[in-house]
Amino acid sequence: MSAKNILLKLLGCRLDDISNISEQAWAEIIDIANKQHVTAYLYYHLKEIEALGLIPAKSKDTLFQSFKQSTFRNMALMAEFKRITNAFMEKGIPVIGLKGLHLVSNIYPHIGLRFMRDLDILVPLDKMKVAYDCTTKLGYQCDKVITKQDFSAPHHHLYQQFHPDKNIILELHRSLTEEKNIDMDKLWENAKDKDNGFYFDTEDLLLHLCIHISYNDLFKIDIRHYLDINLILQNRTIDWEQFLNRVENTELTRGVLLVFDITSRLFGLRLPNEVESIIVRNKSHEESMKYAIEFMWKYDKSSKGYKQYKSKLFISDEPIVRRFFRRIFITKDELSFHYSLDSDSRKVYLYYFRRVYDLFSRHFVDTFRSKTNLRLIDNITKTKMLYAYLFDK
């Protein structure tokens, strides 16, 4: 059995006998788990089945150190989230913690088991400006000059902020996705009040995570995100009629069902009849699932090809020259947004020359590689296929 398959069975709690796994195999399993950000959870599972004594001492120590570091890191992130939440509440700003912020305290049995890289916080659109001003007072900085246009831009979150002393990255979200329309007023209405803050009900949490995997990241994610889905499906009561109605209303059914089917395949999970009965496993679905799993195993943020692997730049079939000129001659409002300028200033027009330089310096090499590098061409082809399947194109 390969290291990948052993890891999948361990994460899915389908492998209790580990006595025959070699020391070399354990090293490979842990290396994969590190890249997939599930090392701390792997340690917890082995401890739960009282199997830590059966693995090599070096591997056991590596797992424990990962668990300990993850615990301390998450404790610091959760404390910072509480600090931000308290400051927001004083200003009358409702807050919902997204992804890991919710999962570590509501889904996972221990705070250190779910890897978190940064803070993703959802606030109402009309509170974005006040929330941003509040975070700057809390010590957060931004590489981009934030102007009034940033608060009405179509992107679903503001430009990243960072705290130089705490080494924490923060993203203020106004919505869950920019690809599809979500009724944010209804989402806030569904949110539950807890300790002067808010959190998603189970149905919206599940919807949010499925959207993040499929429509936001085009399945360029690690197995950690599927583990989230697996744990929710196994340990939470879900109103399936309500959930599927919400999905249908947002026209996201195809991507959500693909996430469920991949989770079922990875962890040996039996899907509920309400979901199983509406999955259409045709050729496009099966190919999409295959490519999505391929992308998952390729995930490695430490690799040199990570930026190109994650990029959505090459999805379009539009000719390069036409696309390049279209991206140069964007609207005046778009140009002023990108360069943090006053849209009423005549200086904006001078930045079209800057735009040409930036596009060449940023994308010329990648565009050339997209036509000559076989590995990148393969990634682009499969990304386009997944995109077409999700958006029915």
From TrEMBL:
Stored InterPro entries: NTP_transf_5
Pfam families the record matches: NTP_transf_5
Designated name of the protein: Nucleotidyltransferase family protein
Organismal lineage: Bacteria, Pseudomonadati, Campylobacterota, Epsilonproteobacteria, Campylobacterales
